[in-house]
Amino acid sequence: QHYFIQSNLRRFSMSKEGSKADERGCSKKDLLVFLGFLLLTEGGGILIGFLTASQFTPGGWYDSLTKPSWNPPNWIFGPMWTTLYLFMAISAFLIWKKVKFSQCLPWTLFFIQLALNFAWPFIFFIAHELAFAFLECSLL
């Protein structure tokens, strides 16, 4: 199983131009592109986190909402969004590895979902538009 995964990662990491990837199956260009996507997604998430953090203060708007018993604790939002944005960066990188920027549809869909994910905290936590936040989340 390990050999299968490693050989497929190595095969997948080869660019169309035939440039060789290093022993880990990742070229320097691949690493820079991934870091760019990571900076885009996580950087946006960090900015949004700073702009919405005031909503999590004790006695604040979010704290005053009636929530179900299975509602996650406030501290989980940071790790959850960080993980979500990491997966978005990985998704963008995989799209880039497959088609670079030669196809419009995958990138259009990626950036639409990214914009929706970036917009949701503002709709919910800043504008307090619960119905619109639910509708927007449904689009995701």
Structure in words:
This protein has 140 residues and is mostly helical. The protein is 69% helix and 0% strand. It contains six helices and no strands. It has helices spanning 2-13, 28-52, 61-64, 77-99, 104-126, 130-139. Mean pLDDT is 85; it is low at 14-19.
Task: Summarize this structure as a short list of keywords or feature phrases.
140 residues; mainly alpha; 6 helices; single chain
- Proportion of residues in β-strands: under 5%
Structural class: mainly alpha
Query: What letter string, H or E per element, gives the SSE order?
Result: HHHHHH
Biggest sheet character: none
Output mean pLDDT: 85
Helical residues, percent: 55-70%
Give the quaternary arrangement of the chains.
single chain
Coarse shape: elongated
Unreliable segments of 5+ consecutive residues: 14-19
Number of strands: 0
Query: If you compute it from the alpha carbons, what radius of gyration comes out, rounded to the nearest whole angstrom?
Result: 19 Å
C-alpha termini separation = 33 Å
- Number of contiguous helices: 6
Topology of this structure?
Layout: H1 2-13, H2 28-52, H3 61-64, H4 77-99, H5 104-126, H6 130-139
Concise account of the structure shown:
It contains six helices and no strands. It has 140 residues and is mostly helical.
